[in-house]
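Repro:
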Amino acid sequence: MDAGIAALLGAAVGAVGTGAAAVASGWLGARTAQQQIIAQHIQADQQRRFEHARDRREPRNQAYADLVAQTQKTGTLVNVMNGAETYATDDVHKVMEETTKLLRCRARVAVEGPVNVADRTKA
C-alpha cells in the first residue's frame, strides 16, 4: 500500500472518529441540559408549593390563636357573671359584645382553616 493512500485512510478514519465523537458529545450534552431543565422545573414547583403552604399557614395559625384567646376571654366573663348574684345591663351587653367577637373569630377560622376544622367548630 502506498504511503499516500495510508495517510488518506488514516485521515479519513480520524475525521470520521472525531465527527462521531462530536455528535455523541453533543447528543449527551443536549440530553443533560434537558434533564437539568426538567429538574429545575420540578424544584420550582416544589418551592411554589412550600411557599403557598407557608403563606396559608401563618394567617391560619393567627386565626386559631385569636379564636382560643377570645374563647377564654368570653368564658372567663361568663364564669364571673355566673358567680354574681345580680346582672347589670352593662354586664349583659359586655357578654353579648364578647360573644359577637367570638363568632367573628370563628368565622375567620372557617375562612382561613381547612374545611374539616371549620366543621368541628360547628359542634
